[in-house]
Automatic annotation (TrEMBL):
One Pfam match: Peptidase_M7
Stored InterPro entries: MetalloPept_cat_dom_sf (IPR024079), Peptidase_M7 (IPR000013), TAT_signal (IPR006311)
Coiled coil start-end: none
Annotated protein name in UniProt: Extracellular small neutral protease
GO biological process, one term: proteolysis
Keyword field contains Hydrolase: yes
EC number(s) on file: 3.4.24.77
Signal peptide: 1-30
Catalytic activity annotation: Hydrolyzes proteins with a preference for Tyr or Phe in the P1' position. Has no action on amino-acid p-nitroanilides
Family the entry assigns: Belongs to the peptidase M7 family.
Enzyme class per UniProt: hydrolase
Organism (species): Asanoa ferruginea
A GO cellular component entry from the record: extracellular region
Amino acid sequence: MVLRRRLLSLALIAAALVGVQLASAGVAQAAVRVLYYDASQAQEFVAVVRQGAQNWNSRVTNVRLEPVPAGRTPNIRVYADNGWPRTYTTSLGNGYWYMGREAVNDGYYQPRISTHEFGHILGLPDRRTGLCADLMSGSSAPVSCTNAFPNSTEAATVNNRFRSVSRSVPAQTYVWQPAA
Ligand SMILES: [Zn+2]
């Protein structure tokens, strides 16, 4: 009991320190925008959806992707079907996307697909450069590409998009399907 109380007080001290750091960071930059995603309908891809969210969280500071808490409306819904992976955005940070088995069965690296589709929700368009180093090159990079992280330019673009609280972005649809 004593140990437990001591641990609790240590935890409170740690939380207070983190709070101070967050508060001072907030002076220099805008508050982190949290976007909630619902992966409950992503079927066999729930873990890979989470991984895609974490990949973004490890590279950007102005926005965070978190699993939706019970009773809250998600910003992002993720589904799975037999088509191409694709994203339908309604506005910056909002929309839904599909983990499509067409690309999975072709052998595309699943975490790259999930991180890429979240990238559309975060305001990035497709850029079919063919380069594996570009997350948003999507299906234009070789099937063998296992890079599942945004490059520094892509991460900086997302940070810029979420720097201000409200920014108008038109609704879009993006499809992973390779060029014929
Ligand atoms: Zn795409």
